């Protein structure tokens, strides 16, 4: 049995609690949130896990083997470094950190600690993005001509994520929150991203995050990458990760839906039913037992942060 401690019990922390509780070989033994009522309620709902309001106490709890860090980005650095000092396995929410310097320090410390260090980049475990990646490898689109990421939000922060940080410039914004997932996918599927030129639309209020981005970059072989995003627009939320190739187009939309077509054809839905989705908790358990696993570690988080920080440069 692997004993889990969770720090940060907000929107995403709660989402992963469900996945942890579904795994027969893990038990959540401790939870922590600076909001005492939230820590207590969550502990009760888990049938008597230990509740903490200070992360240091949870990390020091001898029962805990693996710690999931789901606090807002600017707290990842201090908390994860403390976990690594205690030589415990760690799963960290994305983005790895809130600056490149922090991310590098965390990556170096993780390598030295010799523990499992993983990031929660859920696209990698879903059928849609997996099939997108497989079809690119099988040359469904031929040779890539252009890669495009489009992120449109009627409202940012979104209705389900009304907190005190995701709308602020310091550690929020959709480039950081949403863009980082697709930066990681780009690095994984298409390789290095270079020559980043970015133009942000920023509100007059310096505390508030970007409302738009137009950025261009290149893959290692010079293939252009276009990143464009806008919030406070009419219509529905739309996230498109689109690969235009010499023979066709493939588009991963709204996180999991695939559409594709050959040149001259319509874009049609492509089902990913043949792909068996993986689960991050299964992979974490394998890694903690020393088995081969599919995890995206702090090196992946650090490399994504390098691009992320270029994009959010003001
Ligand atoms: N992987 C994904 O798909 C995904 C999706 C959304 C958010 N996230 C990431 O998850 C993290 C959390 O996001 P969220 O939307 O759940 O935020 P949230 O604000 O809803 O929750 C964060 C929680 O952490 C607590 N907290 C803050 N500082 C703390 C501290 N020092 N010690 C203990 N508790 C503390 C807060 O009280 C709050 O309950 C962020 O890094 C975010 O980028 C990941």
Automatic annotation (TrEMBL):
Family matches, as InterPro entries: Gfo/Idh/MocA-like_OxRdtase_N, Gfo/Idh/MocA_oxidrdct_glycsds, GFO_IDH_MocA-like_dom, NAD(P)-bd_dom_sf
Domain GFO/IDH/MocA-like oxidoreductase: 133-250
Gene3D superfamilies in the record: Dihydrodipicolinate Reductase, domain 2 (3.30.360.10), NAD(P)-binding Rossmann-like Domain (3.40.50.720)
Sequence ranges assigned to domain Gfo/Idh/MocA-like oxidoreductase N-terminal in this UniProt record: 2-120
The entry's keywords: Oxidoreductase
Coiled-coil region: none
Superkingdom per UniProt: Bacteria
Gene Ontology terms, MF aspect: nucleotide binding; oxidoreductase activity
UniProt-recorded name of the protein: Gfo/Idh/MocA family oxidoreductase
């Amino acid at each position: 049995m692997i004993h889990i401690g969770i720090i940060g019990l907000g929107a995403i922390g709660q989402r992963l609690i469900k996945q942890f509780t579904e795994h027969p070989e893990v038990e959540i033994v401790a939870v922590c949130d600076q909001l005492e009522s939230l820590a207590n309620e969550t502990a009760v709902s888990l049938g008597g896990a230990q509740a903490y309001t200070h992360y240091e106490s949870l990390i020091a709890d001898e029962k805990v083997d693996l710690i999931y860090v789901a606090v807002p980005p600017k707290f990842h650095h201090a908390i994860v470094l403390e976990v690594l000092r205690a030589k415990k396995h760690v799963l960290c929410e994305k983005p790895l950190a809130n600056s490149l310097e922090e991310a590098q320090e965390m990556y170096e410390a993780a390598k030295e600690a010799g523990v499992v260090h993983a990031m929660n980049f859920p696209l990698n475990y879903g059928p849609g993005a997996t099939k997108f990646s497989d079809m690119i490898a099988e040359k469904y689109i031929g040779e890539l001509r252009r890669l495009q990421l489009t992120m449109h939000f009627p409202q940012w922060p979104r209705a389900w994520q009304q907190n005190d940080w995701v709308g602020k410039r310091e550690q929020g914004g959709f480039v950081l929150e949403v863009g980082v997932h697709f930066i990681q996918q780009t690095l994984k599927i298409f390789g290095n991203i270079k020559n980043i030129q970015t133009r942000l639309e920023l509100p007059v209020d310096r505390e508030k995050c970007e409302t738009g981005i137009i950025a261009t970059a290149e893959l290692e072989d010079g293939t252009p990458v276009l990143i464009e995003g806008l919030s406070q627009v009419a219509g529905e939320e739309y996230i498109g990760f689109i690969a235009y190739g010499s023979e066709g187009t493939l588009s991963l939309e709204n996180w999991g839906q695939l559409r594709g077509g050959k040149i001259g054809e319509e874009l049609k839905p492509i089902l990913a039913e043949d792909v068996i989705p993986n689960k991050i908790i299964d992979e974490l358990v394998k890694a903690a037992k020393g088995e081969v696993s599919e995890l995206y570690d702090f090196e992946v988080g650090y490399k994504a942060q390098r691009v992320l920080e270029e994009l959010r440069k003001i």
